[in-house]
Structure formats: structure tokens, C-alpha cells
Amino acid sequence: MDAAVALESTVIAHGLPAPHNLDAARRCEAAIRAEGARPCTIAILKGQVRVGLRPDELRRLATASDVRKVSLRDLPVVVARELDGATTVAATLHLAWRAGIPVMATGGIGGVHRRVDGRPAADISADLEALARIPAIVVCSGPKIILDLEATREQLETRGVTVVGYRTGTMPAFYCATSGLSVDVRCDTPEEVVALYRARLRLGLPGAVLVTVPPPDRVALPPESVLPALEQALRDAEARQLRAEALTPFLLARLRDRLGSRVLQANIALLEQNAIVAARIARVLATSAVSLP
To answer: Does the annotation mark 46 as catalytic?
Structure first.
């Protein structure tokens, strides 16, 4: 098996501001190569699914204004109309699995969105459905902190996704080292993660092993500094009646505006760290006897 790591492209086209988006993409790919694995950034270019991008194609995703954000529902539209698209976690996971790549790295997964009016949230990310369906290993820093973390954790449990704390006993929350919520199991090495994944495959279980990695200590943000800024950002979003795909980039941009460069530094650092962890897992998986379904 090839030691390959899939990378999503929405973070390049829509998640980070220029020029940091291109820098982060290059750093993640370089980190994977340095670990002896192969980076495969996934995107749709002129209607063609691309698993692995050239440097000029990464640059286009980072600079063009007409790159569509592509989740599962959007894939056939972008392909049929020969458009350019940056794939979310859900779409990347789907395309990576079809290409025979069972390991993926990202920043934070989507989940259940929060509301400020006290009503139950109806907006649930397609990432959760993909994680429940596709038997892969996804390395991230937990759900994005803009989400309802408790509801997202409950959804992961309900959908049968095994949540791993990588060298931690609690699930991180993107920029923050912990959400205060438990994981299903702690793993301290890539070998432990692969053993857990192999057990899931032998048992015929659908769905992913979600490996959650806290951001590096040097850049992790304390929740007490993030949550007030998040509450204000949610109120701003509610006033603008933002929903669906517009909500996440708006909230993340608001946090960057309010908390400054610390948010950007944390985001880039955790992306690079997750890429390294994923590459190490991919290398172990490539040398083990695993038969993918």
C-alpha cells in the first residue's frame, strides 16, 4: 500500500486569507514529504477530479475568486459543469477513498452548528455523514470551535465514529487544546492508531477512526479568550441571517479579526502538525497487512 495522505482544499480557497493559505498548503505538503509519505491535495479543476496538485494548481486555488466550495452534494454539479472546486472534508474523504487513500489530514471537522437564540440547530455538516460512512483514518484537531461541541461529540458517538485522542484524554477544539469532552480511547503512537483501524476493518464496521490532535502548546489558545469573541461573532452572523456554507468562513474570519494573528498562527501550526501525524500513520499503515474493503 502507498503511504499517501489526502488533504482537503477548502482551507486553501476559502479557509485562510492570502498569502497565508498558499503558505499553509505548501508547508503541509512539505511536512508530509519530509516524513516519507506522499501528499495528495484534492480538488476539482475544470470538472476533473484531481488527486494531487501541481504547484501552479495550488497557487490557482489560493488566488482565484471563482473557486467553488464543494461538499458531497456539489460534486456532480461542479464536475458536470466543468467548474473549479475546493473540496470540504466530506468531499475530500469521499474522493480519497475512491482513489485508494485511507488516510486524510485536515484542520477541524464540521459538525453541529451553534445558535444564539436557544433553539435546536438544524445545520449539521455533511462531514459527519461522511465520517459515519467511509472507513478511513482522519487526522484533525477536533471539531471547529465555532460549533456546538457537545452536540457534535454526541453525533460522532451516535454515528459510530471512534474518536481517538492522540496523546490526550480529551477531545481538542481546533485552536484550543481541549473541549473538556472525552474521547473514546487515547493512542500515543501511529502503531496504536493503525491497530485500532485494523480492528475496525476486521469487525466490518463502517465509518472512520477520527484521530484528534491538540494544537501545538506554543500556539494553543485558552478557551476563555476565544469564547467571548465567538459569542459576538455568532450574534453578528445571526443579525446578517447567515446560514449554510457562508456561516463557517464568516465566523472564522471574525475570530481572526478579534483575536489577531494568534488565531492564524494556531491554524497554520495545527494544520502542519496534523499533516505530520497523518504521514506517520500512513507510513505504518503502508507496511502492515491491511485489506481495505
So the answer is: no
